[in-house]
């Protein structure tokens, strides 16, 4: 292993002596550190517990979707429970440049650049992606790194992920009014999904303030859902809310990715469609530091109508339609909160019955599916 290569090996003969010596020292150290070790008692206990869970058919985090608010009566919001199966393979390379490419002067293979690109933020989403995101290596999220192992690691933080498109006139609607509609839509999204008060289970006052009180029954139904949640009036179909007695957020960052489009509306104004995914890292409120994530994708359609032609409130939005898919939340629980599940705790809610879904896949529209669908996810 430590013998210097002969001159008839062109790939190694060009390596300087000091670089070769550094390589041999590092290689010998790596071999010693990678030697098999007896698993700890804790590791054996965890392994046995996971095997027991698998044998009992226990599954973790779920995925839910639901219809637009006006379609909820008589229909169950579709919720799918999700489970992530991750595997890691390890290969041993014997070639010098494969095992220690950084030893070659100048980084000829660009490994430093690729690693920097992998960790750099993604550009804003302007069109629908054509495929699911390629996830990073499987990693367990921690208090210090709550997005480890998640494609959301490269997403923008909070409001920074809601990038407004350039406003331009739509028919007779001037550009400044289009810009107003876009800003109001962003305010609605922030108030419903990013406002700390909302996320911690409080009343989403800033989101409700954007909606038109003259829209028939809308605010009354939302108030009913917040005050007395039920299957027919479930506030999590529009608001991301967690029970503070059950879980608490990890840090202040909620990862956000999506896009906004606009067109001529049906009420003399401009209609805006927002499609965004939010990723929430959470821990249990009773002490354990195990981190889990809930993924919420929302599609909201609103319109800033023409107050000269319709009985609407100036500067308020009509909520035309909204839908959602929620990954890692107990199925069929209608208490007004999302309920993330933890691998260390026995799952609650209904057993999975639907297909597996990637909660980070934004290349597909939200699936209508069947009522009562409760499936699995491929990752959280």
Percent strand: 15-25%
User: Helicity level, as a percent range?
Assistant: 10-25%
Please state the average pLDDT score: 77
SSE ordering: HHHEEHHEHHHHEEEEEEE
Question: Kindly, what is the distance between the CA atoms of the first and last residues, rounded to a whole number of angstroms?
Answer: 42 Å
Transmembrane segments: 82-99
Biased composition (Pro residues): 130-139
Keywords: Membrane, Transmembrane, Transmembrane helix
Biased composition (Low complexity): 116-129
Please characterize this protein's 3D structure.
The chain crosses the membrane at residues 82-99. Residues 23-32, 39-51 have a biased composition (Basic and acidic residues). Residues 116-129 have a biased composition (Low complexity). Residues 130-139 have a biased composition (Pro residues). The longest helix has 19 residues, at 175-193. The protein has helices at residues 10-13, 17-34, 41-55, 96-99, 111-119, 175-193, 196-199, 205-208, 218-227; strands spanning 62-66, 78-81, 156-157, 247-249, 255-264, 270-284, 292-304, 318-327, 356-357, 376-377. Strands 1, 2, 3, 4, 5, 6, 7 and 8 form an eight-stranded antiparallel beta sheet that branches. The chain has a two-stranded parallel ribbon with strand order 9-10. The protein has a domain at 61-86 and 139-377. It contains nine helices and ten strands. It has 380 residues and is an alpha+beta fold. Helices cover 23% and strands 17% of the residues.
């Amino acid at each position: 292993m430590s013998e210097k290569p002969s001159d008839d090996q062109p790939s190694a003969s060009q390596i300087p002596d000091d670089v070769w010596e550094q390589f041999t020292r590092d290689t010998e150290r790596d071999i010693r550190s990678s030697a098999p070790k007896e698993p700890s008692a804790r590791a054996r206990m965890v392994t046995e517990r996971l095997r027991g869970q698998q044998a009992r058919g226990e599954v973790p985090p779920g995925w839910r979707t639901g219809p637009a608010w006006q379609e909820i009566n008589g229909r169950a919001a579709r919720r799918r429970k999700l489970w992530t199966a991750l595997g890691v393979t390890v290969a041993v390379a014997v070639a010098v440049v494969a095992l220690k490419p950084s030893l070659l002067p100048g980084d000829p293979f660009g490994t430093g650049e690729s690693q920097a690109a992998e960790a750099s933020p993604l550009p804003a989403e302007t069109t629908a992606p054509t495929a699911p995101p390629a996830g990073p290596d499987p990693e367990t999220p921690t208090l210090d790194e709550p997005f480890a192992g998640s494609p959301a690691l490269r997403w923008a933080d909070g409001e920074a992920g809601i990038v407004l498109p350039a406003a331009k006139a739509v028919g007779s609607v001037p550009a400044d009014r289009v810009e107003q509609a876009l800003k109001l839509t962003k305010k609605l999204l922030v108030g419903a999904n990013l406002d700390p008060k909302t996320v911690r289970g409080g009343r989403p006052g800033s989101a409700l303030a954007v909606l038109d009180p003259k829209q028939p029954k809308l605010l009354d139904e939302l108030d009913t859902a917040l005050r007395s949640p039920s299957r027919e009036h479930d506030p999590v179909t529009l608001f991301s809310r967690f029970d503070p007695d059950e879980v608490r957020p990890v840090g202040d960052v909620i990862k956000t990715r999506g896009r906004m489009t606009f067109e001529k509306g049906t009420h003399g104004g401009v209609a805006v469609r927002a499609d965004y995914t939010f990723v929430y890292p959470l821990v249990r409120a009773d002490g354990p530091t195990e981190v889990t994530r809930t993924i919420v994708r929302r599609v909201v359609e609103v319109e800033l109508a023409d107050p000269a032609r319709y009985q609407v409130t100036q500067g308020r939005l009509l909520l035309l339609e909204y839908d959602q898919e929620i990954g890692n939340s107990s199925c069929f629980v209608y208490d007004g909160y999302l309920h993330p599940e933890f691998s260390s705790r026995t799952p609650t809610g209904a057993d999975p019955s639907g297909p597996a879904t990637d909660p980070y896949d934004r290349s597909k529209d939200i699936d209508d599916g069947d009522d009562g669908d409760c499936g699995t996810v491929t990752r959280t």
